[in-house]
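Cross-posting from the chemistry board since nobody answered there.

I work mostly on the small-molecule side, so proteins are not my area. We synthesized S-adenosylmethionine and want a rough idea of how it might sit in this target. Sequence and SMILES are below. Is it possible to get a predicted 3D structure of the two together?
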Amino acid sequence: MKGEFILEFLKEKKQVGAVAPSSKFLCRKMCGPIDFEKADVIVELGPGTGVLTKVLLARMKSTATLISIEANESFCAKLKDRFSDHRLKLINDSAENIGIILSEHGFIEADYIVSSLPLTVIPLIVKNRILDQAASNLAAEGTFIQFQYSLNAQRLLKRKFDVVKLDFTPINVPPAFVYQCRNLQYEDAITSESMSPAFVKS
Ligand SMILES: C[S@@+](CC[C@H](N)C(=O)[O-])C[C@H]1O[C@@H](n2cnc3c(N)ncnc32)[C@H](O)[C@@H]1O
């Protein structure tokens, strides 16, 4: 899988955005905020060779759905060979189309959106569209989870979401930051006054 990943990186550097698949530590960290007992619909953005897809499927309940959206055709074809789980819907498309893809599968929103997209190398106009789609297609109590190798995306994420919490794992190549982003409901907005200012949009 690592070889397959490096080959795609050499062909499509800007799209793939990493030289190696995520470590199991990073995958675990990405799953940390997910309440798998409650999650009915999870959207994964940029599954690549499927390291995180595998962890998500292993922890999801039997009635849940995972919609994994991958722009790279070759990764998508290999994922289709690799996974034969009825809960997984693999879509070869851009993450800019989360809303349409959810409705085509009969869903109005996602409980969690888990993204490995390389925001640093994605053009601003495209990442604005993707993050707007993520924010507007998230359930009221939902969480958008995103990893990045730098803090470049922090300001943009704070513009799109009300609450942005930051975590870190050194055990990945390269070490990675993990963002948890949420939108506040009216009641939350009141209680958020008691939250640590570091985690709330400034
Ligand atoms: C850094 S890799 C992550 C792969 C895998 N999830 C992992 O953690 O090892 C980023 C993935 O995002 C995909 N990607 C990039 N832009 C995309 C877009 N606009 N929509 C969907 N997938 C995209 C790339 O093809 C690549 O598979």
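Reply from a structural biologist on the board:
Welcome over. Reading the output above for you: Residues 15-18, 21-22, 45-48, 51-52, 69-72, 75, 94-95, 116-118, 122 surround S-adenosylmethionine (CB under 6 Å). The beta strands are 41-45, 65-70, 88-92, 110-115, 138-148, 163-169, 176-182. Happy to explain the token format if needed.
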